[in-house]
Every structure is written in structure tokens, then in C-alpha cells.
Fold:
Amino acid sequence: MENKTIDMNLSIVDAFKKNFPDLDIKTPTWAVLGVTAEFRKLQVGDIVLFPIDSYNYQTIRSTPGTSMVPEVLNEGRQWKTKLDRDNKSVAVLRIA
Structure:
């Protein structure tokens, strides 16, 4: 999948900062890999945007509970997802 070169609306960063004020939230990147690979490469505070025309919303939402069980149970990783209407994507923020 080719990396998106379109402009990005950064309002999603403000939305996440409102809910997680103590987290150092970084500038989002566009997803270019598979869903699980994108989740695995996130560091705490990273945001990845999955364009809704290229990725399945339910797959993104279910990934932590299906494909990422070892990371969740053994490492304590956590993510939050939010529909990003401005960028026509699903935003995923790693919070732990």
C-alpha cells in the first residue's frame, strides 16, 4: 500500500490531547502496512491513521483483542481508537 501524500488535518491530535492530557502525543502518520503490523510498531504517544477506503473499521477495532493478545497480556500495551471524520480515517493512539 502506498503512503498517503494528502494533507492531514491535525484536529485528531487535539481530540486525543483532551482525553489524555498527560500523554506526549506525536504527529499522526498514515498506515501503509497491515493492521497488526501498524499496531506493533506504535510507541506510546504515536498515532496512526487508517484510511477508511483502504482498511476495515471492525478489523482495526478488534485487533487488540484478537491479534495482539500477547502484547496486551504480557506487555500491558493499550490503544484507543477514534473515528477521524476530518481525515476520513480511523485514528489509533497507543496509550500504554
User: Anything to note?
Assistant: Residues 54 and 95 are 24 Å apart (CA to CA).
